[in-house]
Amino acid sequence: MIPGEYLLQDGEVELCAGRERIAVEVANTGDRPIQVGSHYHFAEANPALTFERDRTLGYRLDVAAGTAIRFEPGQMREVTLIPFVGRRHIYGFRGAVMGELSSAPPSNAPEAAQGARPPQPGDSDQGEP
């Protein structure tokens, strides 16, 4: 073996084997292209993307890590999503969840994502994550 050499097995690797998958129709109603990355919390994606946001709480794109899907203006396409696993704590993105997924009601995610921002130093209601 040469240092740094990869020894690959024959066959294909199935990403996220055995995970639940959901299909969602998404339309870009904006006037600019929008890209969503592989590990972005899909429920908090750009508001110009229209889809069933409540269904996507706790889900991300079912694509290889580091890749993204691009939605051109006026384009509609179906995407496949898989759930976040592990502790299922979501922080950042558009600030709609900011903690454990089970503590955020699905109906709250879309409204909170509209214009949400992460807590800032000096915010009076800033708590522990």
From TrEMBL:
<dbReference type="InterPro" id="IPR002019">
    <property type="entry name" value="Urease_beta-like"/>
</dbReference>
<dbReference type="GO" id="GO:0009039">
    <property type="term" value="F:urease activity"/>
</dbReference>
<dbReference type="InterPro" id="IPR050069">
    <property type="entry name" value="Urease_subunit"/>
</dbReference>
<comment type="subunit">
    <text>Heterotrimer of UreA (gamma), UreB (beta) and UreC (alpha) subunits. Three heterotrimers associate to form the active enzyme.</text>
</comment>
<comment type="pathway">
    <text>Nitrogen metabolism; urea degradation; CO(2) and NH(3) from urea (urease route): step 1/1.</text>
</comment>
<keyword id="KW-0963">Cytoplasm</keyword>
<dbReference type="GO" id="GO:0043419">
    <property type="term" value="P:urea catabolic process"/>
</dbReference>
<comment type="similarity">
    <text>Belongs to the urease beta subunit family.</text>
</comment>
<dbReference type="Pfam" id="PF00699">
    <property type="entry name" value="Urease_beta"/>
</dbReference>
<keyword id="KW-0378">Hydrolase</keyword>
<protein>
    <recommendedName>
        <fullName>Urease subunit beta</fullName>
        <ecNumber>3.5.1.5</ecNumber>
    </recommendedName>
</protein>
<feature type="region of interest" description="Disordered">
    <location>
        <begin position="101"/>
        <end position="129"/>
    </location>
</feature>
<dbReference type="InterPro" id="IPR036461">
    <property type="entry name" value="Urease_betasu_sf"/>
</dbReference>
<feature type="compositionally biased region" description="Low complexity">
    <location>
        <begin position="102"/>
        <end position="113"/>
    </location>
</feature>
<dbReference type="GO" id="GO:0035550">
    <property type="term" value="C:urease complex"/>
</dbReference>
